[in-house]
Structures
1.
Amino acid sequence: MELETTIIDEDRAALEGASGAPKKVFVKTYGCQMNVYDSQRMTDALAADGYVSTEAMDDADLVLLNTCHIREKAADKVYSVLGRLRDLKSERADAGRDLTIGVAGCVAQAEGGEILRRSPSVDLVVGPQTYHRLPEMLAKVRNGEKVVETEYAIEDKFEHLPQPRRAEVIKRGVTAFLTVQEGCDKFCTFCVVPYTRGSEVSRPVRQIVAEAERLAEAGVREVTLLGQNVNAWHGEGPDGSEWGLGRLLHRLAEIKGLARLRYTTSHPRDMDEDLIAAHRDLDALMPYLHLPVQSGSDRILKAMNRRHKASDYLRLIERVRGARADIAMSGDFIVGFPGETEADFEATMQIVREVGYASAFSFKYSPRPGTPGAEMDGHLPEEVKDERLQRLQALLTEQQQDFTRGMVGRTMATLIEKAGRQAGQKVGRSPWLQPVIIDEMAAEIGDIIDVRITKTGYNSLFAEPA
Ligand code: SAH
Ligand code: SF4
Ligand code: F3S
């Protein structure tokens, strides 16, 4: 399909409305970091189409909900917001002003036209693979059409989305996300991602390097590479050889100004030797690894189709720690997967004790339509899931607290991200992703400065210049 990027005059007039003021877009983001990244890129695409972004939903001409389908609660949230938007839209109609409502993201991909049936005030449903066609779709909406676009686009959306704009990058601060891989071929039996994001696609090296350079030129010091399965990223390097994520990180570390690199989320099966070695060899690669295991029980891991055993995971962590002793581990856990016994759950508690997490996310299993898990026998009562989640979270919180408290007295490099609430105060980020609050320090945003940790809060650190 031909891509329309120039705005014809009638469109411009429609965009600007009678008053000549530019149209305003409010984007609300749910779900994971990839949605955060996508929302930024949609904002960039809409800016090229004449929209300015607003922080106030009530003030917007276009509201875009960038949705998440991962658990039932996440998906339900969308419909309650759509209810509110329907009321806003009819108030607007009475006042003679339009409101365009768009649903993007993983609920859009999973439910498609069903969203229009449940919420007729929605004008546009757009799946994650077609964001580069947003201007074209909005032109159709202005012509009175309802648009549902959930086909996987043949053309590469990243090739067609406008580059992040310098002014926006500066506004967003000294840390940035960069999606390098999208989709997933793993088909864990609980998970909707392979259905909502499609099969695994890696962005080419030159595209990633160009975007990282652009971010660095705009003052970004820390880049987090994103993918549903980021360590499955692979691509052809400029030398014609096949690169993995380890090699890519080496290349990005050469970019002037980029001092810190991170990546998320990884699957244990795709942690290769090169990537582990990068943790040893690259100072820029931060000592923090989010490596979800979901369960500590081999039986449940098998039912989840994770395709590794608990012992494989533990051995892997040993190797990673062998490469970088101070690496902090983070993970995701699901409790109450169908058929999970008390013994299976105890195995999860045990793996948590063995690993020792600096941070973690834990969830009650939520059956998702269309996934194999939803069809399995042995679904557990909500009370059992609740009770197990409480026990797991108590243990994880304790570990996180120990990790945080262990920082007192240490000196560490901190990336200064913004001014604090009090005069002279700065807020930065530790190598382990903790917020660091420093009173009275002469430093510029974007500086990386050694500070000494004096005390801790729940998750944040308080420091003085070292
Ligand atoms: N690609 C990542 C996970 C992405 S989804 C990985 O393989 O680890 C983020 C997290 O949401 C998952 O790690 C899992 O813990 C949780 N999750 C996914 N589907 C879920 C479901 N149906 N119910 C509860 N939690 C779920
Ligand atoms: Fe979902 Fe599994 Fe893919 Fe992660 S690896 S996105 S949990 S299917
Ligand atoms: Fe949610 Fe889609 Fe991310 S389902 S977690 S927004 S990939």
Note: The chain has 17 helices and 21 strands.
2.
Amino acid sequence: MNKQKLIEEFIALYGGEKESVRVFASPGRVNLIGEHTDYNGGFVFPAALTMGTTIALRVRDDNIIRMKATDLDDIVEIDLSAPEKYKDIFWGNYQVGVCVELEKAGYEIVGCDMLYDDTLPHGGGLSSSAAIEVATALAFATLSNEKKGIDKPVDMIEMAKIGQKAENNYVGVNCGIMDQFASAMGKENHVIFLDCKDLDYKLVPLNISGYKIVIANTNKKRSLADSKYNERRAECDAALEKLKTVIDYDYLGVIPVDVFEKNKYVIGDEIKIKRATHVVYECDRVLKSIEALENNDVIKFGALMNGSHDSLRDLYEVTGIELDTLVDEARKIDGCIGSRMTGAGFGGCSVSIVREDAVDKFKEEVGKNYTDKIGYAPSFYVSDLGDGGREIK
Ligand code: GLA
């Protein structure tokens, strides 16, 4: 909902004057290529969406924190002296995790009333959790700085790291930095080329004139995704440990393809070799994608996206029947030049590059064929690329 409407709902809920309500927002992301590479010190290429989390809030004169979501009934009241008790609540635990990490980093959590509005599908693989984390971190860090009289803008890369730590330490998902970084640092019409080993990054204008980014949601209920995610991560760590006995690299994602090919035998386990092969070649595909976009070669970019999906399906094994069906059906459409899963996998969304005049046909035919095969319908989002976390004045 728009800012005005959100403020009206806030007043209806908490009372008081409109003038004292402030609004913060942070988006979800779509990753165009570079999947399961971030926690391996490799490259990713995500962009912030225009869908995300918006928070209306008002500072209180005590330490109480009350929060509610526009699509849920209950107000959650948070007592930060006992953060553990919120770990398994249905909604609100990401926020608690963020407050805990902000306190560890020296921020003072200011009491406030908050109303959250989320426009991303929950658990749909477009980083709805990172959007909540980064918006929450920005809001509380801003209030803390003001209370302490610190007159400088909030460091958004720090907010991304706080969000990731909340997820790692509090929520218990061992995610990398990509989602929070994209949510914090995105820029309208740009994609972020991020080197995850040192967070060096470049904003790349999205040169795909005549084409659209079409996101399709499998609408699969996510199950076991978090534990499988952590398992993949452990497999990569184990492969790297073996490789380190013969070559000197700190991350899987920085090993050149030829060096990897010569030394992969040392991993000694077929599954782990497959996982590592995906990571090494996927990082190479990201570099080739940047080059393709710089040369205005959208067709090559699309082919690299296809290669990425096939590797995630066959080597990393994180796609599943729903994502594979979406992607297979997408690739049959004349005008779709590349299609792949985006995010962690095991359900969630695909991303496709589709010629503008073919978008309607794409939605219709992919929607119908997916429904016939899977038994329920996908959802589509033709999304613009938006800005990262900010206060909306
Ligand atoms: C999830 C994680 C990210 C990243 C992707 C896979 O979105 O949160 O850190 O690992 O999966 O690329």
Note: The mean pLDDT is 96.
